[in-house]
Design a protein that fits this description.
By secondary structure, the protein is mainly β. The protein is built from two helices and eleven strands. An eight-stranded mixed sheet has the order 6-7-8-9-4-3-10-11. A hairpin with a 5-residue loop joins β1 (7-11) and β2. The radius of gyration is 15 Å and the shape is globular. It starts with 6 loop residues before the first strand and ends in a 10-residue tail after the last strand. The model has no long low-confidence stretch (mean pLDDT 93). It binds zinc ion (2 copies). One zinc ion binds next to α2. This is Mss4-like protein. Keywords: Lyase, Metal-binding, Zinc. It comes from Leucosporidium creatinivorum.
């Protein structure tokens, strides 16, 4: 596994796991915010920001003998299970994917250093907005998963 200068690297807090994404794939990722209740809990915040990319577009570099812990999140509002991975060393979410649909991966945007993240173009589960949250300007809002527009 080699990285080049055009790869963009993101890592967890303890550094056990690093995701390497070629800058071209990084630039063509679909950036999204998800406000579903499970993302809220997983992020410990109001939403998760994810970069949606083909699973073939990233390389995971882990410290020897380690790999991210997997949690099958079967209680999702969408009715589909999401496999969430996180670092066992520091608890940082790494990436997730829909169970049985691993060809598309949702990389946690917070792994990457500030100043390089694209603005989200999709905002999911707008029905869960807190009363003081403003929809992100320029992003397509969906009440639930993609395809479910707000009423
Ligand atoms: Zn870690
Ligand atoms: Zn979510």
């Amino acid at each position: 596994m080699t990285t080049t200068t055009t790869d963009i690297l993101g890592s967890c807090n303890c550094g056990q796991h690093t995701l390497s994404i070629p800058s071209s794939a990084f630039a063509s990722a679909t950036p999204a915010l998800c406000h579903c209740t499970n993302c809220r809990k997983s992020a410990g915040s109001l939403f998760s920001m994810i970069l949606i990319i083909p699973a073939s577009a990233y390389t995971l570099i882990s410290a020897e003998g380690t790999k991210p812990k997997e949690y099958v999140d079967s209680g999702c509002d969408s009715g589909k299970s999401i496999v969430r991975t996180f670092c066992e060393g520091c608890g940082c979410p790494i990436r997730s994917w829909g169970e049985g649909a691993e060809e598309v991966t949702y990389v946690r945007a917070g792994l990457f250093a500030p100043g390089q993240l694209p603005k989200p173009v999709i905002e999911l589960y707008t029905k869960n907005f807190e009363s003081w949250w403003k929809p992100l300007e320029g992003a397509s809002g969906f009440a639930g998963m993609i395809g479910v527009k707000p009423e």
